[in-house]
Amino acid sequence: MFRTSAQRSPIRRRRSAGSATSTGSRGNIYYGLGYPPFLNDLKAEGTWKPANGKIYIVEGDSVYSQTISKKCQEAAPGAGWQIAGVTKVTTGQADWAPSVKAAVDSGAAAIMNTHYAPDDLAKWTKAFAANPSKALVYLQYGPSIPAYAQLAGAAANGIIWATVTGVYDDAVGKIFRDAYQAKFGKPAGFSNSGSGYDAVNMLAKVWGQVGDGQNFEAVKAGMRNLIHRGVNGGYWLNKNAGLAYPVETPDAGLGQAHLFFQIQGTGNTILNTTVYSATGAGLRQRAGRSGPARGRLVVRRRGSIKNSPAYA
């Protein structure tokens, strides 16, 4: 379906259909802005009782990572949180122990790592497991890539991560995940697999409506006017990118939700108590060492925090 000729198709002009249909670079903002309210939700539900109101940030060396860090720092005071400190790390660095030590020594109840590379995050996770604290650890996006869990192994249990465009745990998402597993013999990732699938289906639908894939202006107009329900949620590209729910739109049918997951044993559990999670799920503090997550999505009923000796 994707053209390989030198002609400038809508895909080539947009760099990739996936980047246009997801929340795109604007998603960086919502990762940072959405983290302090998420912590407050856990507190309000009684599923987490933090030792204090401090967040420590480990920040990567990319603009992407630094934007997320900056927005979290801006949002934290208004949500009742204090930034205990910020440590910057370099992609591919050999020793992750210093940044782990700085985060642990801060005594912060929550640690946010905004770096995104799954292999680096796996090494950081192992370094944290070797020098742990009771903090709630959040690694932004990277654990959505199946390679992260394979590399981090049992150390990944209890880690929280998020995506602003993820495969929902509803009937639509389940059909996609089952079909992907049957086709490729391995589980789909929790983010890009779904957004890529949605992008292809949206573009195919518009090409069919226009009747000429080379009529670029008509295709662009069709994409902007299209309202589509995909495996990653709702799409309406009136701003040339998908809308973030609920920050940009109160209508879940028009936007993609900011989903928070926790790695619990052999599965990834959606923590949001919403329509994207079949039952809602319970937060576990330092989930037990039952082996690495294998890319499977598990939903458990919400309950109080379960203490575990995983990092004792």
Describe this structure as you would to a colleague.
- The chain has 312 residues and is of the alpha/beta class.
- The protein has 2 domains: 10-20 and 168-250, Response regulator (Rossmann fold, 3-Layer(aba) Sandwich); 25-167 and 258-311, Response regulator (Rossmann fold).
- It contains 10 helices and 12 strands.
- The protein has helices at residues 10-13, 17-21, 27-45, 63-75, 97-105, 118-130, 146-152, 171-184, 192-210, 216-225; strands spanning 54-59, 82-88, 110-113, 136-139, 160-163, 227-230, 233-236, 243-245, 255-257, 259-264, 267-270, 296-297.
- The strands form 4 sheets. The chain has a 4-stranded parallel β-sheet, with helices on both faces. The chain has a 4-stranded mixed β-sheet with strand order 5-10-11-12, with no helix packed on it. A two-stranded antiparallel sheet has the order 6-7.
- Strand 1 (54-59), helix 4 (63-75) and strand 2 (82-88) form a beta-alpha-beta unit.
- The longest helix is centred in the first third of the chain and has 19 residues, at 27-45.
- The chain is globular, with a radius of gyration of 20 Å.
Summarize the structure.
This protein is α/β, with parallel strands linked by helices. It contains ten helices and twelve strands. The chain has two domains: 10-20 and 168-250, Rossmann fold (3-Layer(aba) Sandwich); 25-167 and 258-311, Response regulator (Rossmann fold), CATH 3.40.50.
